[in-house]
Amino acid sequence: MTSVVTLHELRIREEIDIVHVRQTVREVAVSVGFSLVEQTKLVTAASELARNTLKHGRGGTAQVELEKHDGSTVVRLVFRDEGPGIPDTELALTDGYSSAGGLGLGLSGARRLADEFDLHTTPGEGTTVSVGFRAGRAAT
Amino acid sequence: MIAGTNQTVRDGLTEFLKIRRGDIERAWAATPVFTSKRPADAAEECAELLSGIRQVIETGTEEDPSADGFSAVRTVLGSLASRSAGGPSGSDRPDVTVLKAPLLRLWGEQGHDEDVTNAGALALSTAINTLRIAVLEIELSAGADTILSQRQQLTELSTPVIKLWDGILAIPLIGTLDSSRGQAATEALLQQIVAQQARVAILDITGVTAVDTLVAQHLLKTAMAARLMGAECVISGIRPQIAQTMVQLGIDLGEVATRATLADAFSHALRKIGMAITRSDNEPGR
């Protein structure tokens, strides 16, 4: 049995919304029993992706979903924007490459932090990034 | 409707509010809005409120919450608003609509024509309703002011630069380090490095909930700026979960020294300035 529940749908329009996303995600992580390390990874990835949505996608939404598969729980975050899209995803996922003067680790780092990572982008139409975090996974 | 409140009615109301002033004030002072106040204060506030109501009735501005009559009683409204904001929420809140019933009862006793009585009651009701809107507006703006001042306080609170020793500064970073707060912290630290001729600056992130790439970049930039000014930066308070997350994120703090605790960072800093902490031979009991 798999059930998917959307817990929150948040708008990302300005800097303060990123804080809101982080707080919401942390609350969810605590409520489903994530360990401290898992919480920190989830919150950090959420922070990176929310900031990308704001900076590169000119704002968008963050959706927090809870998936239950036979006994295991996955927290999924879906970030959507209708910005310019990513022309070269390979390049965007390269460590150290940044088009905005950052460290260039946000997107690639979020992929490493997450258990599941999915990126869809269409130039001129927008980008959707989805990350999944499983509870109780052995630390890597 | 209100425009139809003719001059006869207005004159009647003004006359009524003047003649029955004492009765109205006494009736109001007995309502839940004022019973929690000292009688003298309540009487004074009722009088001010009533003169405000009389003014809006006289000038026909009882529909406008920003009318002169209502702004004249702003202090009274403010004290009502703060009392309801501070008090229990919901039905226990003093609500100025309770002022309406005694007012209308006394007006009904005046014995005017039915038409005049009805039109007058309508105007008085409107005035009290508008008064209520004015109270709500004050409550809302007070809330917005509170939020603004708290935000400013937070920005300042997050940036105390502490002198640990001659030449050693520490800055404990707390909570969320977003642009404005991070910027304020950096500025405060760099200024103090100059002012106190510091050689070592410790950035303690024990209170930071998550270190993402922006925070890391901010720490690196601060350390770089400090180094340009001749001070070494040490980052302390990196908790296990944050260390693990930073590694996976791929953050490399490079040449910036890091320590697990503020104590470790402090002893590192002391060594840097040629000092050391040793056990005293004069310790009692030795």
UniProtKB/TrEMBL annotation, chain A:
Query: Which SMART domains does this entry report, sorted A to Z?
Result: HATPase_c (SM00387)
Q: Does the keyword Kinase apply?
A: yes
Give the record's keywords alphabetically.
Kinase, Serine/threonine-protein kinase, Transferase
Q: Which residues form the signal peptide?
A: none
Top-level taxon of origin: Bacteria
SUPFAM superfamilies (alphabetical): ATPase domain of HSP90 chaperone/DNA topoisomerase II/histidine kinase
List the Gene Ontology MF annotations in alphabetical order: protein serine/threonine kinase activity
Designated name of the protein = Anti-sigma regulatory factor
In this protein, which residues make up the domain named Histidine kinase/HSP90-like ATPase? 37-137
Cite the source lineage.
Bacteria, Bacillati, Actinomycetota, Actinomycetes, Pseudonocardiales
Protein species of origin: Prauserella muralis
